[in-house]
Every structure is written in structure tokens, then in C-alpha cells.
Amino acid sequence: MKKKEQELSGASFFLDDLLGLLSSELSSHTDEIVNQSICPSISNETNERLIKTPSDEETRSAIFSIHPDKAPGPDGFSDSFFHSNWETIGEGITREIQNFFISGVLPQGINATHICLIPKKTTPKSMADYRPIALCNVYYKIISKILTARLHPIMNGLVSENQSAFVPGRAITDNVMITHEMLHFLKISKAKKRGSMTIKIDMTKAYDRVEWDFIRLVLTRMGFHPKLIGWIMQCVTSVTFQFLV
After folding, report:
1. Cα-based torsion angle of the residue sequence 214, 217, 222, 224 in order, rounded to the nearest 10 degrees
2. What's the DSSP call for residue 52?
3. Is 234 domain-assigned?
4. Residue limits of the Reverse transcriptase domain (predicted)?
5. The 130-136 sheet, strands edge to edge
């Protein structure tokens, strides 16, 4: 019992410290900086495709693109249950998914998420030694899959070439090769005589540092339709977490 209390105390301290780290840093100049850095690039034709109410087939394709053996979220249902019983429950699920895209509001509890902590080491000693894995409800997974599939074809034109992972046609190994070549150049060239150096920055909780208002600001500046932005922000801002301990 004492060990469990110590673990919970350590987790509480870690989260309090993290929440303090993630305080708002948006300034009055943020709008100006975003407007100068980003040019609108989403056409009306693209927006029309992005904001359509999903068809029955699009919804079915989304659910069957999810691996059936994924761990269940708070609702307790696995993806395989939906796959196996789609002929029975498919029509009802599809209508509920379409209702979200029409109303723009997620029903309460749909975005509830369990956080499972997976040890990074054999003998973890602190919260930093755990990797958090989010376990979401299948209903939410379907919505996010639909949005992801729609955005997938245009991501290459939206994301800078410096981002070499998670974009179609790019590989994270590209940046590894560039880094290797750069270090090789510094080693054999005259650069070391000038005192050149490289800096590696590993930003803790990089995604969690991105403020919601900033996400909305960037999406708006890119030219996305307000309806699509509303759907994305519902997915981002309505989540609630519970830790499995």
C-alpha cells in the first residue's frame, strides 16, 4: 500500500509540474507572426470535399481501417466487436457519426480516454520512465479516422519539408541521413576551426505544448473552412483523461 501511495504521489507531482510547464505563452503579436509565416493554401474545392457529411461507405471504410486488436477505451468495446457485428450495428453507428458532422458537437463522454502507462525501462523509477498510451472509444476513433483520411492527400503541401515523418512520401530516415552528413562535414571541414557546433533540442511533451488557440489560428490562416476547424477543435478540446493505475 505504501509503495502504491508513493507512486500516486509521484504521479501527482509530475502532472502538477507538467501543467505548470504548459502555461499559456501566446502574445499579442502571435496573430501577426502567423499571418506573416503562413499563406492561405486551401482552395474552395478542397474545402467542399473536406466538409461533406460522411457517406455510409466512408464510415464503414474508417472503422475497418482500424486494427481489430487495439485495446478498448472506456466504453469497453474492442474494434473487433464493431468489425464482427457491423451488419447489425453499422446503420446506427453510421447515423451517430453523421450527426456529429452535422451538429459539430461530440456527445458527452465520447472523447473520454484512458491513459495506460507502459514502462520504457525494466525497472522504472520515475514518471518520465513511462510512455503514456491513449485508449480511446471506438466512436471517437471512427471520427478521427475520417478526418485523417480526408486530410491525408493534402498534407504534403501543408507541412514544411523539415518535417520528414508522418507525411505521405517522406521518411524519418531522411533527417537521420542529413544529420549524419552534417556531422561528417563538420568533422572533416575547416568548420571546427571556426568553432562551429550543432545543437540537439528534444522538447518534452512537444504536442502538448501546442496551445489550442494557436491550432485554431493556424488552421484559419491556412484557409480551412470554419466547419472543419470546428470538428477538429471538438476532437482536441473535449477530451477527458483517466489514468489506469
Report:
1. 110
2. S
3. yes
4. 118-238
5. 130-136, 112-119, 240-244
> Dihedral, CA atoms, 96, 100, 101, 105, nearest 10 degrees?
170
Residue 97 resides in a domain:
yes
Cα–Cα distance measured from residue 161 to residue 167, given in angstroms and rounded to the nearest whole number: 9
How far, in Å, CA of 155 to CA of 158, rounded?
5
What tens digit of pLDDT does each residue of 40-57 get?
Answer: 999 999 999 999 999 999
Domain extent at residue 137: 43-160+225-244
Give the model confidence (pLDDT) of 103-130 as tens digits.
999 998 999 999 998 998 888 887 778 8
Question: Is 186 a domain residue?
Answer: no
- Residue ranges of alpha helices (H) inside 114-208 are 138-151, 155-158, 173-188
Quote the CA–CA distance of 93 and 83 in Å, as a whole number.
12
pLDDT tens per residue, range 229-242: 999 999 999 999 89
